[in-house]
Design goal:
8 strands; 46% helix; alpha/beta; 9 helices; globular
Length: 256
């Protein structure tokens, strides 16, 4: 990937017409779907960084790489050449040239992604990759758990989405049931609370509310209300730097 203008190496945003919006928060707050829709409405690209860590977890599982072998895992991830196909909506994550979008949502991946994502060597690789993506796609909505705090600390606008564990468990259960899978909400609550503990206490890139972020509690809000709230704030803060409708420029273009 080329280091095009748009995001500096330390997570800044230096292009005059570049826009980086970050959306952080714990699991189950709807970050991915909200970020995707917000990007569409504002004419920006969408980066799902959680998918990248899930892909790394899938690689570890499928290649039987133990979590205590970080160098082997990082080498496998580099060899897999993770990249997004930006011609699709949402962008399709590829590993070894093949889509991994279905695989990364499997239960075994979900069960191990938090400890995998806590591996410092892997996080350093992912931060570098995410900043490279922003250099090529300087008009970006990026969602994850450390986007506004670590990857893009100088983002133009930062959001932090939150909701109670019970609400997040209910949403996850409904999602699983729509897919024809059994879901026990009490079990999901425990899993979510453990994931929160793991994500917020890891030494490298812990889950925190980024400095200067707009904190939005989505517990009592529907999807449209959440997206609408973020859109109003973004348009109020960024004005003419964001537009409506589909992406107004080709992916990676720095044109205003």
């Amino acid at each position: 990937m080329s280091a095009a203008a748009g995001a500096s190496g330390d997570g800044g945003n230096t292009a005059g017409c570049g826009v980086i919006i970050t959306i952080d928060g714990p699991a189950g707050t709807g970050k991915s779907s909200v970020a995707r829709e917000l990007a569409r409405r504002l004419g920006l690209d969408f980066l799902d960084t959680g998918a990248m860590y899930r892909a790394a977890a899938a690689i570890a599982l499928d290649r039987n790489i133990p979590i205590d072998q970080p160098r082997e895992l990082v080498e496998a991830v580099v060899k897999a050449d993770l990249r997004f196909d930006w011609t699709t909506d949402p962008p399709t994550l590829l590993a070894d040239g093949q889509s991994v979008m279905r695989r990364i949502r499997d239960a075994d991946v979900t069960a191990v992604v938090s400890p995998i994502a806590g591996i410092p060597e892997l996080r350093r690789l992912m931060v570098e990759r995410q900043r490279r993506i922003a250099a090529e796609h300087p008009r970006l909505v990026s969602e994850g758990r450390d986007q506004g705090s670590v990857v893009f600390p100088n983002a133009d606008l930062k959001f932090y989405l939150d909701a109670s564990p019970e609400i997040r468990a209910a949403r996850r259960a409904a999602q699983l049931r729509r897919g024809g899978r059994e879901a026990e909400e009490s079990v999901l609550v425990r899993e979510i609370m453990e994931r929160d503990r793991s994500d917020s206490t890891r030494a490298d890139g812990p889950l925190v509310c980024p400095q200067g972020a707009e904190r939005i509690d989505t517990s009592g809000l529907g999807f449209e209300e959440v997206v609408g709230t973020l859109e109003r704030i973004a348009r109020g803060r960024l004005g003419a730097r964001v537009r409506g409708g589909e992406r107004a420029v080709a992916p990676g273009s720095a044109q205003c």
